[in-house]
Write the structure tokens for this entry.
Amino acid sequence: MTTTTVTTTVPTAARVVDAVKVYGTGDASVRALAGVSVDFPVGRFTAIMGPSGSGKSTLMHCAAGLDTLTSGTAHIGDTELSSLDDRRLTLLRRDRVGFVFQAFNLVPTLTVAENIRLPLDLAGGKGDLEWIDALIDVVGLRDRLHHRPSELSGGQQQRVAVARAFAGQPDVVFADEPTGNLDSRSGEEVLGLLGRAVRQTARTVVMVTHDPVAAAHADEVVFLADGRLVDRMESPTADKVLDRMKAFEVPS
Ligand SMILES: Nc1ncnc2c1ncn2[C@@H]1O[C@H](COP(=O)(O)OP(=O)(O)OP(=O)(O)O)[C@@H](O)[C@H]1O
Ligand SMILES: [Mg+2]
């Protein structure tokens, strides 16, 4: 196992400390996270990789405040999530966190423009209109604004979901296999978008993926196995990530 100690003054957009998550009780219990500490620095694109069942989605859900830890702490910026009551947690998720899921999760009855604005409309605010206007161009959907999701390709729908995730200028966007349902070309477009959002607008993205090519778009990859953080890799390439993943395969 390789451990890297990174001394940095970059603030963290999100982090978990000694995160343990146990689902169920007794014989049926599953320890999905077995003591993970990891930070996601501001302005960085981090990929989370690891075998199926290694705890990637659990880590993301707990870090984002969608689920609670059994022990340990999760923080968005300086806010420790377990210190918040339900109302404050809901507000934090709404105002400071964006999400992109594998199944695009758009509202079918709303247009593209309405879907992008949905988090802001729910918050009862206008948001930053210039930012949203620029986002529409970044995701290349200006000529589709009045279409419904069912009239769009999968790649276009996921680009709407990316725009929606960034609409409220959140501190951090969490994406769980955002390219899992896309062909490779649409996947590349969505990954390029996430990368540009980080590099051009200093946003923070944390993305779970199975795909070494997708992970290579990130600034850093963190590897999970059996609910533990087992490695981190700076400046990943698809080949380096693939080699690292092969090392997980225990010879029988
Ligand atoms: N709601 C749940 N109830 C019980 N066990 C769960 C629940 N969610 C996840 N698990 C278990 O926790 C472990 C980690 O699951 P998790 O979904 O985090 O893995 P993952 O790395 O995202 O896997 P995949 O790559 O297949 O999406 C698995 O053993 C899984 O079966
Ligand atoms: Mg998962």
